[in-house]
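To: structure desk
From: M.T.
Subject: fold request, one chain
Message: Could you run this one when you get a chance? Sequence is below, nothing fancy, just the single chain.
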Amino acid sequence: MRITDLSETEADLIEAFVPVAVDEAGGFAGFRETATKTNSLVDRLRKLTLPAVGDVEAGLESYVQTTERAEELEAKIEKTDELIDEIVYELYGLTDDEIEIVEEAVGE
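Reply: Done. C-alpha cells follow.
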C-alpha cells in the first residue's frame, strides 16, 4: 500500500520508518491498550514525527539500494542452490520419485 500525495522518496521513508517505529513501541504505539474513541489510530498517526526527508535522504537511498541488492543476491543464492541440487541429483543418479522424497524430507 502506498500513501498518496507523497513523493516516491517520502513514501519510501514512511514505508521503512513506520514498521521500525511500531516495533520499537511494542505494537502500534500501544494502540491496542489505549485506544478510545477520542484517541484513534488516525490521531496517533497525526502525532508521529517523521524526520525531514532532506535529513535522511542519503541514508534512505542507501537503504533502498541495499535492500534491492539483498533481494538480487537472495535470488542468485536460491538459483545457485537449485543448480547444486540438480548436480547432486544427477551425480547420484536419482529418479524423479527419489528426488521428490529427498525434497520432502528436507522441506523444499
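Reply (cont.): Residues 53-92 form the longest helix (40 residues). Let me know if you need anything else for the meeting.
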